[in-house]
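Q: Got one fold?
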Amino acid sequence: MQIFAGQLRFGIHAGPQYTTYPEYLSLWRLAEELGFDWASVFDHFVPIQADPSGPCYEGPTLLAALAAQTERIRCGILVVGNTYRHPAVLANIAATIDHVSGGRLELGLGAAWYELEHRQYGIPFPPIGRRIRMMREAALILKSLWTRERTTFEGRYYRLQDAFCEPKPLQEPHIPLWIGGAGEQLTLRVVAEVADGWNTFFMPEEAYRAKLAALERHCREVGRDPGEIRKSLVVQMVVGETESEVEERVREVAAVRGWEPGQLRARAVVGTPEQVVARLQPYLQLGVGDFLVGARPPADRRTLELVAREIAPRLRELARAG
């Protein structure tokens, strides 16, 4: 299954923490109005990389509401923590959201990493190797429940007996399934075996090349063409039309985040549209099909506008030129 083969997509990825539902809905509607192809939520019960006592919306519930309030944009979640829900339950949740969205869901699955959530809620938090093996079984269960009339599964961690998932998703053969993470030994092996797409965060070019080499090695071992696996990057960006605007915007965004300007520059792709295109072009040549702008509330509207108006068209032109 090759999802959106040959189409370069741009989107936003925004963790729904320290925000209100109206504010978050307005972000998704803005993304749709600007012509972005994708918007996604995360899956956490408490805020991450911030004070964990603050507000944070539950991912699949919020995603269903957003799917009902948008019309065109692909509706994603990056990524569902596999430990939080039994995969058969998740399969039914996802199939329902696919119907609510009119066939626009893209589901990301991860092994889960935030130990605090597990400890607070009494959710078991096995060692990382076991969590990744559980994720692999979950991915197999999801695809089976979405495509077969009945599913019987005898795994190491999950068992199903003549299980139904009805109605099936609208999308055929099934909902696109993404695996999130960058571990070269275990996670990328699961990507090679079961994923339609691989999502990770922006990293230096040489580090990304190493991840791609590991993925290609796993694909060879399982007999799969790595070109079948779509690749996406979540990229933090701060964009201004001129050098002076970039400097001003770095100060503004850093202040909102509670960082020093140097910290922001270290974490984000910063520059004019021309500079950002030059920074992202090598990743386009390495096969990235989706660039997702990190847009955690309060969203940087100016950056989103410039990505949609200036950066996306230029990168799409480069993609067409090959």
Summary: The radius of gyration is 19 Å. The longest strand covers residues 74-81. The chain has one domain: 9-230+291-304.
